[in-house]
Amino acid sequence: MSFERLADVVDAASRIRYGKHWTGPDPRLRCDTTAPVYEWPDTAPYNGGPTYTWDIRGYGSHASEDDQVQPHDLTTALCGFRWAEGDKPRRISGLPDCTECRREVQLGGERPRSTR
To answer: 0.70 cut: is pTM over it?
Structure first.
């Protein structure tokens, strides 16, 4: 109901802004019960599973599916940030500082009980 009221306000503002060129209400703002607006994923985009939080000096902490840094290869965080063994990352407990990684973990990741 409140979203429909917001749509009314947007339509009224558009009518004023466009004047005689206004083509009518924007159907994208209206609720339509015949078709789903958004399909919720079953799991997080990285397919769920355990995630591990890494603190990368100078770059904050990020989450990754990898529980170990791969020598001679880049490790990729859930947000797409990449780091190498030379960046001296260390595993830490808790959620990462990176808001994108944190969101992905909270969407469906399983947190390990221990970082040992």
So the answer is: no
Q: Give pLDDT tens digits for 44-75.
A: 556 667 889 999 999 999 998 888 887 778 88
Is the pLDDT assigned to residue 114 strictly greater than 60?
Answer: no
Burial of 23 (0-12, 13-18, 19+ CB in 10 A): exposed
DSSP bridge pairs for 50:
110
Q: What token pair was written down for 28?
A: 């994208």
Are the beta carbons of 79 and 100 closer than 8 angstroms?
A: yes
Cα–Cα distance for residue pair 92/96, rounded to 1 Å:
9
CA dihedral (65, 76, 103, 88) in degrees, to 10, reads: 90
Helix (H) or strand (E) holding 11: helix 2-18
Hey, what are 74's tokens? 């880049």
Return d(Cα 101, Cα 56) in angstroms, integer.
14
Q: Are 91 and 111 in contact (CB under 8 A)?
A: no
Tokens of 106: 């909270």
Terminal Cα distance for the chain, rounded: 50
